[in-house]
């Protein structure tokens, strides 16, 4: 938490079992956590319960993983119902981000899942967990997601964003937030490139 505060990041994502946290050393830092992580193959009621518990334990944001198999099979109604269940368990002002594993989906599936997330009341669509064998964020996926949600939802690029060049390309493609495991290195690269 102290490092996140020192680097000036918006939020730090942690496993739900680490909640609640003492944020006295990091005032203003938001806490994000995950549900249905990393496979998304949990029952919707389990995801919703996990998300609700995390919010009770102090999470400001919940990142849920969709059932990627349902999306691949074209069961977009099931994907929307899954997201709706978690949204009901995490009412505003809690931020709900929907991890779609974009690298595992076709363009058509990415668009359909983003539409399902919007219809279910999500706040963000997010490229990936960073654990799926198909890969993480790509400029193409971020651009497609951004075009689909049209500014009505945020777009988070996550998974494989490791350099300042990666970060800038994702932002240029439409990412409104980045998920980084090497924040200090990316920020250092940005400072060097921009002469901050």
From TrEMBL:
Q: Name one GO molecular function term.
A: deoxyribose-phosphate aldolase activity
- Pfam families (UniProt xref): DeoC
Cross-referenced InterPro entries: Aldolase_TIM, DeoC, DeoC/FbaB/LacD_aldolase
Q: Which UniProt keywords apply?
A: Cytoplasm, Schiff base
Q: Which residues form the signal peptide?
A: none
A biological process (GO) annotation for this entry? deoxyribonucleotide catabolic process
One cellular component term (GO) for this entry is: cytoplasm
EC number of this enzyme: 4.1.2.4
Q: What name appears for this protein in its UniProt entry?
A: Deoxyribose-phosphate aldolase
Taxonomic classification, please? Bacteria, Bacillati, Actinomycetota, Actinomycetes, Micrococcales
